[in-house]
Amino acid sequence: xxxxPPLFAVAIALAGCGAADQAGSDVSLALRxxxxxxxxxxxxxxxxxxxxxxxxxxxQPAADPLQTLERGEAGLAVVDIHExxxxxxxxxxxxxxxxxxxxxxAALRPAGLRPATQRTPGAPDYPxxxxxxxxxxxxxxxxxxxxxVAALQRGYxxxxxxxxxxxxxxxxxxxxxxxxxxxxxxxxxxPDFQASLQTYGELDPARLRAWAAWEPRTGLVKRPPDVGRAxxxxxxxxx
Length: 239
What we know:
Layout: H1 6-15, E1 27-31, H2 39-46, H3 49-52, E2 57-61, H4 65-70, E3 76-80, H5 81-89, E4 94-101, H6 114-118, E5 129-134, H7 135-140, H8 142-161, H9 163-173, H10 179-194, H11 205-214, H12 227-230
């Protein structure tokens, strides 16, 4: 079983502090049909990390989480960073608030995006999957967004420390998933969640600027995304 360095164990303990000071409410979280990459979400909800910080998260599987978010059918969504760039190019004010997977992982990328991204040389380091919200949600319900980010940081940190419990949480919620496959997939993805980031979930501005400069080369967008508008990293707690 993997173990975090002591600093990360301390961060997990601290993540539960100050819960009474955070206001929030129920929030639906749109995600693609669940798999190992979502284990931290389901562990967070099973252990009540979300309700403890005033943001009861309800995972909502969807064929297209981004469209679900844009239609207002979910308050949060796990989306690929290239999808976020395309949404913003269409004029949608979708904002990344947390990195779910901290580095590029082509296997997690929607199939339609893979050819453009994989054939484009010079790819920088960037988060593959991000937690996203509409700017209106961030403005109108900041407490819920803040609480959800705190809960998911804790959920993914504990999933890394205790993957067996994370697998159990996911397969209990989604019985169609086979525990041995989820366990193998989670073990393989383990290093990708935090990657080389200082803090799990961090949206590193320098990496995002490098990604934004590179993204038009893929042909998925014509102009570099405005990193300052496309991401809001203030909800991620250091640790």
